[in-house]
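Re: beginner question about structure tokens

> Can someone show what the tokenized structure looks like for a real chain? I only ever see the sequence side.

Sure, here's an example I had lying around. Input first:
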Amino acid sequence: MTDWAVRTADGWLLAIHVQPGAKRTAAAGLHGTALKVRVAAPPVEGKANAALEAFVAERLGVAKSRVRVVKGELAREKRVAVSDPAAEPARLLEG
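And the corresponding structure tokens:
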């Protein structure tokens, strides 16, 4: 589909560049080959990761339990697994 969204056996693997501490949580276009997401939560105690997972789940219309940060828990460059083959990653760029 795109450089930042790769289909896997059970769904999608998303490359996401996170900017924590923003005014509101929203997708902000591309950052190199990753989708940039501004997250309102601070980067402490996993709050930004949890907010990112919730944002991705809500936008894609999947359960939060199906979205997990699988790489880069302490970095801005993250890999997020979405365990739902029917999910449409392009929806993250809408609105």
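Each token stands for a local structural state, so reading them left to right follows the chain. The beta strands are 5-8, 11-20, 26-31, 34-39, 67-71, 77-82.
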